[in-house]
Amino acid sequence: MTSQAFLDAVSKRRSIYGISKEAVISDDKIVELVHEAVKHTPSSFNSQSTRVVVLLGENHDKLWDITTNTLRNMIAADQFEATEQKMGAFKSGYGTVLFFEDKQVVDGLMANFPAYAHNFPIWSQHTSGMHQFVIWTALENEGFGASLQHYNPLIDEEVKTTWSLPDSWQLVAQMPFGKPTAAPGEKSYQPIDERVKVFK
Q: In the chain, how many domains are there?
């Protein structure tokens, strides 16, 4: 792949909220894509602290039922319709990728490298962000649309209980994906010269 092909893939990655359950690639291909992304995405101190859960089929639906019910208990009934529609839109997708950081790994780095201890939680988030970006772009490149959601920490405990996940896994983000049913919205860009400085 040329650098231009890579940048083309990057430029096509957008937040897509209209998604369907129609298959774009096989489940095996989705899992392979995630495996490759997690294996090769960098992490601070090569910590490999990111953990990923792929939810497909009924498990994907269950996640958004959990999220809907959690929010229903927090939002007044007469104000819940918009939230319920939003949850339904995520549930209408093909699957969801859950991103976690393993706090046990991060705590270990803090203990082993005390001079950098205050940075490791920050670097852990950097690591997670890179994994999110790589998987998001890869899904987009295969023809899926996706968006990044953050219903943590509201759903953390039920998610870990439902799928028997280690307590040290800290939920960072949720990425529902599916075949796009709507184009992304318009996106504005700040002048690039105000964002990038070059000194020769």
A: 1
